[in-house]
Design brief:
The complex is a heterodimer of chains A (555) and B (139). With 555 residues, chain A is an alpha+beta fold. Chain A is built from 14 helices and 16 strands. In chain A, strand 4 (157-165) and strand 5 form a beta hairpin. The longest helix of chain A is centred in the middle third of the chain and has 88 residues, at 267-354. Chain B has a single domain (18-133), classed as Rossmann fold (3-Layer(aba) Sandwich). Chain B has helices spanning 2-9, 26-38, 49-58, 75-85, 100-108, 121-138, and strands spanning 18-22, 42-46, 63-67, 90-95, 113-116. The chains are: A alpha+beta (555), B alpha/beta (139).
């Protein structure tokens, strides 16, 4: 009955507690992680920006240096020197000695004709007049080309500077080793999968990247109008996720593209994420376990309270039942008592008359005499029932003396000696030797004990044992008397009515059904309580608690 | 039938003490009266305290057997009135089961003793004699 309805309570408690603890935990975990992730992303991106700017500076510096070197050459040497094959060869070898990138060197006049050329290719006398870069140099006096194949049939880039000497324009043109340029660009990569390369405004690769198969999509958004500073975007293609940084060079309209593998960069973040999940998961686990334990404890506590409440209620119901039945019994007894007195007197009168001589000589005298005798006998019997009913209803106030309970038990058992021996029942004594004397009414206790022992004997029938023990419960200041029989136990249905007046399992005429209810109210009146434990097939135990000190009980 | 028989046998030999039985249960009172008469008492019976008092004014009575529980004027009240007017009359109280308290109260008001119902006729007879002797001593 008690667990009924509390499963629900447990579930409610568990759900509420889980809700209130898991949601904040989850929110905390997610918030912390996302804030950390944002901060980390920012950090990675700003690193990339710094890197891109650094790199751009070094590339710009390189280009500026080459241009400056050529310019120094063209102004430091006379046109005659530069036009002479021998001189030009000497200059190139000197240059290659100090600065690797230059592959060849040539002087071009204002008609676009290669006046002199020093280098591995035979480019002398080739006319560049129709080339776009030639016109550019003529106007701007300096030119850096995209990478192109030109007359040589392999990718290269050229740098050209112009000067005026005696009214005539001269152009000094050099080819830059694209390998050296490539490695310059590629140098200073961040991670294993990082890459750096240049593209021109049309999106064509100007240096060879570390990894081939570059998709235009990677840097396409950076093309178009040049912008100042570095821009960072995230690029995703298939399983590959990366940060892409773009920055325009100052010396040439080339875009420096830097790729950083996101996985490598964000590895610590992924680790933090994994740790966060483990911590949150562990927290959730602990909270669930804790909540379930607490819910279970609360439910168990509630169950205990309810059980106690139910017991208390039962006792209250029992006492009020007793009181009501007591009143009823008293009323009935008084009402029956008067007619009984009349019947008794009438029978007495008849007996008086039967003593007359003439009646004695009547042939039916014996019958009359028997009838009167029976009437008296049964009036007596009815009188005893009434007496007991009234005893139940209104017992004499208990007297109060020092009672040595062990002695009372022993004395009471003596009454039953014959019965016990006849039925082969063993009395097992387990009395506490130094049990305190109590202030109580010995004869009333004896009545109860006698009743309980009688019941125990009846329950056993033949062959068994009754254990009688006493003890002292110090905290309650009560002594306990236990009577345990080896009988068949009491049926659950009967247990409910055990203390009810007039409830009996014995045959009509053998028991009044008052024994236990009288015992109950006697013990109650003495300030104690009586209860029983019975399991079918396990026997029955009655336990009486009686206060050591006189208990002034109010009715 | 009992009535007829009885009327024939009760001889008016009023040698013993004169007794008044007061009990609201008419059948009980009547039978008790008959039985006591048969044992030589000079017995009269009434059903209420008031009738008892009015009878006492007219007749000489030694012992009153008085039921405690009666409607109207109850046994204790009647006892007090009797003892007030005729202190020498001995009163035996009859009370129902558990009426010890009432009996003791009655004795405090001067009742000779109290008997608990149900009571054997012999006890009533003996007690009445004792009470009668007591009244004689006091007399």
């Amino acid at each position: 009955m008690s667990t009924f309805g509390y499963k629900d309570l447990g579930t409610k408690i568990a759900i509420t507690a889980l809700g209130f603890s898991l949601i904040p935990l989850f929110a905390l975990g997610v918030t912390m992680y996302s804030m950390f992730a944002a901060a980390y992303h920012n950090k990675v991106q700003s690193n990339l920006v710094a890197l891109a700017e650094n790199k751009r500076q070094s590339i710009d510096l390189f280009l500026r240096e080459q241009v400056a070197q050529l310019r120094t050459l063209i102004y430091a040497h006379s046109t005659e020197d530069l036009s002479s094959q021998e001189k030009l060869d000497a200059i190139l070898s000197t240059m290659q000695f100090s600065s690797r990138p230059f592959i060849d060197l040539g002087l071009i006049n204002d008609q676009g004709r290669h006046v002199s050329y020093s280098g591995p290719y035979n480019l002398k006398d080739i006319n560049y007049k129709k080339e776009e870069w030639f016109n550019q140099v003529m106007i701007k006096k300096v030119y850096v080309s995209d990478v192109f194949e030109g007359f040589r049939g392999f990718p290269h880039m050229i740098i050209a500077v112009g000067k005026q000497d005696k009214g005539q324009d001269w152009i000094l043109r050099a080819t830059i080793d694209s390998d050296i340029f490539d490695s310059l660009v590629r140098w200073l990569q961040l991670g294993d999968k990082g890459d750096a390369y240049l593209v021109n405004r049309a999106g064509e690769l100007q240096t060879r990247p570390r990894f081939g198969g570059k998709s235009r999509d990677v840097f396409a958004p950076f093309l178009g109008t040049a912008f100042a500073g570095a821009k960072i975007r995230e690029f995703e293609s298939g399983p590959k996720k990366m940060f892409v940084g773009g920055i325009w060079l100052e010396q040439k309209d080339w875009l420096l593209v830097i790729e950083e593998n996101m996985y490598g960069e964000l590895k610590p973040l992924a680790e933090a994420k994994a740790t966060a999940w483990v911590v949150v998961g562990g927290g959730i686990f602990i909270i669930i376990i804790g909540t379930l334990l607490i819910a279970r404890m609360i439910v168990a506590q509630q169950d205990r309270i309810n059980l106690a409440q139910a017991q208390l209620n039962e006792e209250l119901v029992q006492s009020s039942k007793m009181a009501a039945l007591g009143k009823l019994a008293a009323g009935v007894a008084h009402e029956v008592n008067n007619p009984l007195a009349v019947i008794r007197e009438k029978a007495g009168w008849m007996r008086d008359l039967l003593e007359e001589e003439d009646v004695q000589s009547s042939p039916n005298f014996q019958e009359f005499d028997d009838a009167v005798h029976k009437i008296e006998q049964h009036v007596e019997r009815a009188g005893q029932v009434v007496h007991r009913m009234l005893g139940f209803a209104r017992r004499m106030e208990p007297v109060c003396n020092d009672v040595y309970i062990n002695d009372v038990l022993k004395q009471t058992a003596v009454f039953l000696d014959n019965e016990v021996h006849f039925r082969n029942i063993e009395l097992v004594w387990d009395l506490m030797a130094d049990i305190p004397a109590i202030q109580s009414d010995a004869s009333q206790i004896q009545q109860v004990i006698l009743n309980l022992l009688n019941n125990a004997i009846d329950a056993i029938g033949r062959d068994g044992h009754i254990q009688i023990s006493t003890g002292y419960e110090e905290d309650k200041e009560m002594i306990s008397i236990s009577i345990r029989d080896s009988g068949p136990g009491i049926d659950k249905e009967i247990q409910k009515h055990l203390f009810d007046p007039f409830f009996t399992t014995k045959k009509v005429g053998e028991g009044t059904g008052l024994g236990l209810s009288i015992s109950y109210s006697i013990i109650n009146k003495l300030g104690g309580n009586i209860r029983f434990d019975s399991e079918e097939g396990q026997g029955t135990q009655f336990i009486i608690l009686l206060p050591v000190k006189n208990y002034d009980r109010k009715e | 039938m009992t009535e007829k028989n009885s009327s024939g046998h009760i001889a008016p030999v009023h040698t013993g003490p004169s007794v008044l039985v007061v009990d609201d249960e008419h059948d009980f009172m009547e039978t008790l009266v008959k039985r006591l008469k048969r044992r030589g008492f000079n017995v009269t019976g009434v059903n209420s305290g008031l009738s008892a008092l009015s009878l006492l004014k007219k007749e000489h009575i030694d012992v009153v057997i008085l039921d405690v529980l009666m409607p109207g004027m109850d046994g204790i009240e009647t006892l007090r009135e009797i003892k007030l007017a005729w202190p020498k009359i001995q009163v035996i109280l009859l009370s129902g089961h558990g009426g010890e308290e009432m009996g003791l109260r009655g004795m405090a008001y001067g009742a000779y003793t109290y008997l608990l119902k149900p009571v054997a006729l012999n006890s009533i007879v003996e007690t009445t004699y004792q009470a009668f002797e007591q009244s004689g001593v006091r007399r």
